[in-house]
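Pilot study result, target chain (164 residues):
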Amino acid sequence: MKGSTASTAFICFGAWILGVNGISWLKTRVSGTTIQKIADRNLDSTQWSFKSAYKTGKDTNKNSIFVADVFKKAGVIVPQINNWWSSPIGAGEWGNPNSSYLKGNSCWSQVSTPGIGDVISDGQAVAIVTGQQKTTRATLEKVVKDDWGFLSDSQNIVFWHYSC
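Predicted structure:
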């Protein structure tokens, strides 16, 4: 169409083909293993620590920013709470089973049995499932891999799966 921007998206054999003005890009689905590997590459990093000035300044929790950054490195943009500037949803939305940000996005679905690469939250913290009852997350000091979210005293845990 002359003078207009036409875009089309097709799903073909598990891959996204996006066409804009006749130019196509092939984007394969992001696997949970890919997300897990990216998350685990950051183990021991202090970039997302409470004391780090990264993105939100010192003395702020950055676990939701860690999750957003991991997904971004995998080629996925997590839902944003403000479209005017980059502000990913926080732990409260990840822990909300009725989140309009996630339920309104066909790529995200709530699951009861988590898999590798799924997001886990209790509404106060958020992490990425990276193993059998293991999560990778930003803590006050550094990125760690442990059993957070799978502990016997963990309550109100919500899991979200990305499928695009």
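One observation from the pilot: Strands lie at 7-12, 15-20, 23-28, 108-111, 119-121, 126-131, 134-138, 143-146, 158-162. A full batch analysis is planned for the follow-on phase.
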